[in-house]
Design a protein that fits this description.
The complex is a heterodimer of chains A (about 550) and B (about 100). Chain A has about 550 residues and is mainly α. Chain A contains 23 helices and no strands. Chain B is mainly alpha-helical. The chains are: A mainly alpha (about 550), B mainly alpha (about 100).
């Protein structure tokens, strides 16, 4: 029975862990009249009060566009490293990877590894040059020597698709999670709470408030996860081997959890695994809300150091989630009060993403449960704020200021448009979050990471490193990556087969990056090579100046002092 | 920062040296990260028996767990190598280049 269960779930689990929690996972929640989770509520309120205080402080210091988009470029390397980690460590990676390990053992580690290896690439190829060339958005750099308007429209479109879908995933996860943790709050109410708070942080406090919300959340998440892993290991006198041995004894699949190269009950699929790997690796380097962080630091050196700090925090965190997953096998799977039916396996009440949350309760009672719940809530709030600011910047800085107003908008108007865009995106996120309540959102992170890896990443890198890239080439390659990802994800097993119910998938992989990334690069290269127009020639000539500035930081935007 | 300053930088041998050494390091390290990660994916896909073998006979901790954590640590180490090299060599070259072109 257990095997059959995990077989049917396996593919879902793999994809779902990427997004936040599949809808079905929370369908059977809420036992009758549960006690009110006061610890969690009080800690939610403390976090909200603290972050609103920071927003008030930040609002008084946010005057110029540089303050609003880039926190006045006054964020230090360590602060930005924490904020990067905060942006990146979503509730999906915390709850999702711990859950993957809980159900599948070793296999969950594949995700931890995949989520981390993009960071060195961000450092080696992107961070410093981006900081040297750009102002507020990555489109500044992509469009540096190319035709401003069409390139910015493309970059803004891909940013908005990434941001809106990522927001849907986060909002649906937030609604389900809050409702599970505090059943008295309805799904739609949770979505509105998250949406309204995020609008307040971003419109009033801009990048300064968003960054500090990220930093606090990152510190809370790292602290909470450290404490959990510490308590688990302390139980085994700090011997991981003893912990693994106990987990093997308790888990119904026993030693298979140490040997799972694929979700338990399914066969490894090398092509899918490589495509997933490319998606995670290069998607990280193309996420607009992550790229935006590099404009908040003082210079290229701080950008570079912040990646090292961020990589350390994120790598440490993923090792912790692995321990937490095994800890959950030991403490949660052995306790029938958490299980749907102890005779039938280790499926959990409240859905598949609860192992880390229940582990907190098993280790530290209701107080620790409340704390970890509040941390998960803070995590979601921080991530949606960063996303919304990136989306609003694409609308105000790329679409409005550079395309609609042809670069002649005043700074004040641009910031006003950005705030209006934040409110609009917040409302869209709330409405879509409510609309997608009963939808399977497991494909969403596949889609967003695939677009980031196949459109933003290759065009950005080619624009900075290859003299030959022209406007036509960038547009052709970028749109191939963007549309190719959208089309192939739609035709893939999750959307075509499960969401749309159309039967056998037209395209066999969930992650199309193995096709779309090379396609975008080849198309951009071919079209640029074939481009004989006069503008193409001047664009190639302009590369030299861009290259000198990207390498030396000459003329880079400086820090604003107040 | 006029065009003539850009021209002076362009002609400065230090500039070529900076770009070459930094690009060589950046691309080399990128290829190393990609190779390590692809090797890990392929080991998971095709080397199941090797990865699932216990580290010591009779133990439960597998080779795969150690390799997986090793890949995470290698990403951190490679990042640190780049930052160290940039903080020392590249920043110094850039400073000399910018001062010399004033």
């Amino acid at each position: 029975m257990m095997r059959a269960l995990s077989r049917s779930r396996s593919r879902c689990v793999a994809a779902a862990s990427l997004s936040l929690l599949p809808t079905t996972a929370f369908a059977q929640t809420a036992p009758v009249a549960p006690p009110i989770n006061w610890h969690a509520i009080v800690m939610f309120l403390v976090f909200i009060a603290l972050t609103l205080g920071i927003t008030y402080w930040a609002a008084k210091r946010t005057k110029s566009a540089t303050d609003f988009y880039a926190a006045g470029r006054g964020i230090s390397a360590l602060q930005n490293g924490l904020a990067i980690a905060g942006d990146y460590m979503s509730a999906a990676s915390f709850l999702g990877i711990a859950a993957l390990v809980y159900f599948n053992g070793f296999y969950g580690l594949n995700y931890s590894v995949g989520w981390l290896v993009g960071w060195p690439i961000v450092l080696f190829l992107i961070a410093e040059r981006l900081r040297n060339l750009g102002k507020y958005t990555f489109a500044d750099v992509a469009a540096y020597r190319l035709k401003r308007e069409p390139v910015r429209v493309m970059a803004a479109l891909s940013t908005l698709v990434v941001v809106i879908f990522y927001l849907i995933g986060q909002m649906v996860g937030a609604g389900q999670l809050l409702h599970t943790l505090v059943p008295q709050i309805q799904y739609w109410q949770s979505i509105i709470i998250v949406g309204v708070l995020m609008i307040i942080y971003v419109t009033f406090g801009g990048m300064k408030a968003t960054t500090w919300v990220q930093i606090i959340k990152a510190a809370l998440l790292l602290g909470g996860a450290t404490l959990m892993a510490f308590l688990v290991l302390a139980h085994f006198s700090f011997s991981p081997g003893a912990m693994f041995a106990e987990a093997v004894r308790i888990h119904p699949s026993h030693n298979a959890i140490m040997q799972s190269m694929a979700p338990i009950g399914s066969q490894p699929n090398p092509i899918e695994a490589i495509s997933l790997g490319l998606t995670l690796m290069f998607g990280t380097a193309g996420l607009p809300h992550i790229l935006m962080r590099f404009f908040t630091v003082t210079d290229a050196k701080a950008a570079r150091k912040s990646v090292l700090y961020g990589t350390c925090f994120i790598g440490y965190f993923y090792i912790l989630t692995f321990i937490i997953g095994f800890g959950a096998i030991v403490f949660v799977a052995s306790d029938p009060t958490y299980l749907v039916d102890a005779a039938k396996g280790i499926a959990l009440k409240g859905g598949g993403n609860m192992p880390a949350v229940y582990l907190a309760q098993a280790l530290g009672g209701d107080l620790f449960l409340g704390f970890i719940s509040a941390v998960a809530f803070a995590t979601i709030l921080a991530v949606v704020s960063g996303l919304t600011l990136a989306g609003a910047s694409a609308i105000s800085h790329d679409l409005y200021a550079n395309v609609v107003a042809h670069g002649r908008a005043s700074e004040q108007t641009e910031v006003k448009v950005s705030k209006a865009a934040t409110v609009a995106l917040g409302i869209v996120a709330i409405l879509l979050g409510i609309a997608f309540e009963r939808q399977n959102v497991a494909y969403i992170v596949a889609l967003t990471f695939s677009i980031a890896a196949s459109s933003n990443f290759p065009i950005l890198v080619m624009a900075m490193f290859w003299r030959g890239l022209t406007t036509r080439g960038a547009l052709a390659g970028g749109y191939v990556g963007l549309l190719g990802s959208v089309i192939l994800v739609t035709l893939g097993p999750t959307v075509w087969g499960k969401v749309l119910g159309m039967g056998t998938a037209v395209f066999p992989l969930d992650m199309p990056t193995i096709i779309t990334l090379p396609a975008a690069v080849i198309v951009a290269w071919l079209v640029s090579k074939a481009d004989r127009s006069a503008t193409a020639n001047s664009e190639r000539l302009a590369f030299e100046d861009e290259y000198i500035r990207s390498q030396t930081g000459l003329g880079a935007e400086g820090a604003v002092s107040h | 920062m006029s065009d003539s300053r850009l021209d002076r930088i362009r002609r400065d041998p230090l500039f070529a040296q900076l770009c070459q050494s930094r690009s060589r390091l950046a691309w080399t390290l990128s290829v190393i990260v990609l190779a390590i990660y692809l090797a890990f994916i392929l080991l998971v896909a095709f080397g199941g028996d090797f990865m699932a073998a216990p580290l010591v006979a009779g133990g439960v901790t597998t080779v795969g767990i150690v390799i997986g954590i090793g890949v995470i640590l290698s990403a951190i180490v490679l990042t640190a190598i780049y930052v160290w090299k940039a903080n020392t060599t590249f920043d110094d070259l850039t400073r000399r280049l910018l001062e010399g072109s004033k």
